[in-house]
Amino acid sequence: MFCSNCGNKLLEGAKFCGGCGKSMASKETDKQQAELNSPKEISKESTYQSNSKAIIKCGNCGFVGQGEPARRLVFKILAWSVVWFAPLLTLLYFLATHKYRCPKCKSTFLGVKNDQGVFIGQKGGGSRWAIIIVVLIVGIAVIGILASIVLASLNSARIKSRDARRIADIKRVQLALELYYDSFSEYPALLTALTPKFLPEAPTDPSNQVAYSYIFCSREKKYHLGSSLEESGHSSLATDSDQTSLCTSDTINGLDSSKCSETDFGGHCYDVTND
Fold first, then answer.
1. Distance between CA 109 and CA 100 in Å, rounded?
2. What pLDDT sits at residue 29?
3. pLDDT at 133
4. Between helices 87-96 and 73-81, what is the axis angle to 10°?
5. Per-residue pLDDT, 251
6. pTM of the predicted model, to two decimals?
7. pLDDT of residue 98
8. Across 116-247, where does the E strand assignment appear?
9. Residue-range domain boundaries for the chain
10. How much is the pLDDT for 162?
11. For residue 245, what pLDDT is reported?
């Protein structure tokens, strides 16, 4: 190590020259000060990266820098406002439009710089969470529609099953009434008289477990038996008796448009008599 001023050989780590007395730290200090004062070149790209989340490279004009949003705020608000009743429109909007565009030529034909520093082609679509939310809403809506269809089908099947049970019960009671008549030459005043000899037990409506409507007109020696169906267009309603009153004590309204009695679950009377 030699002094830059007089050429005198210096000891390692010496701060002053033994020949001329010049400080050895002055040169190093000047160098550091020059480095501090010298302007540093800051690339446009680094500036863009510090101020923006997306660096784009335009394929139309060659611009490299910060991309600007391609979607207008008003349209984004409209897209999200219809998500509850038209989620597909929201999804299509974000999938069909680009997120960024070139601030210079307004082109969406550009590449977006990824974490590896590579420009990849811009694809239509919104943020990952936005797409996930929309897909979830669409999925829930589809499941709800399918569930409604299934429940409607099951409900219809249950109604048909209950009506079939009611008609079978009426025919079974009617047969027991004829057996009772063969044994006693008259019809019973109450259906409970049929048990247990002619029926194991008196049948009841499958919906509310209420006994079927039954009236015996002793003077006319006729009975009126009925059950209210739930299906208004059931084929059995076209072949029933449709009696409104066989005697003064008959309270069964046999018209198809109404219940046999107010306590019935269904709304369309299926009635039979011994005529």
1. 9
2. 52
3. 75
4. 150
5. 92
6. 0.52
7. 85
8. 119-121, 213-217, 222-229
9. 44-126, 156-273
10. 94
11. 86
Helix or strand run (H / E) with residue 101: strand 100-101
User: Which residues have a Cβ under 8 Å from the Cβ of 216 and sit 6 or more positions away?
Assistant: 187, 188, 189, 190, 222, 223
* CB-based burial, 229-239: b 16+ in 10 Å, e otherwise: bbbeebebbee
**Which of 266, 226, 263, 267 is closest to 246 using CA atoms?**
226
The 3-state DSSP class for residue 89 equals helix
Residue ranges in the chain modelled with pLDDT below 50: 39-52
Q: What is the C-alpha separation between 67 and 90, in angstroms, rounded?
A: 23
d(CA 64, CA 57): 4
Beta bridge partners of 226: 213, 271
Determine the Cα–Cα distance for residues 42 and 118; give it in Å rounded to an integer. 21
pLDDT at 39: 46
Determine the pLDDT at residue 73.
Answer: 86
Indicate the helix (H) or strand (E) that contains 271. Answer: strand 268-273
Nearest Cα to Cα of residue 54 among 67, 41, 44: 67
Using alpha carbons only, give the angle 225, 229, 230 rounded to the nearest 5 degrees: 165
φ and ψ at residue 101, rounded to 5 degrees = -145, 165
Amino acid at 118: V
pLDDT at residue 49, as a whole number: 43
pLDDT score at 50? 41
Task: Please report the pLDDT score of residue 174 as a whole number.
Answer: 94
pLDDT value, residue 40: 46
Task: Residue 268: name the closest of 242, 246, 247 by CA.
Answer: 242
- Say how many residues make up the chain: 275
Cα Rg of the chain (Å, integer): 47
100 alpha carbon, distance to own chain's centre: 31
Residue 9 φ then ψ, to 5°: -75, 135
Query: Residue 203 — left, alpha, or beta (φ > 0 → left; ψ -120 to 50 → alpha)?
Result: beta
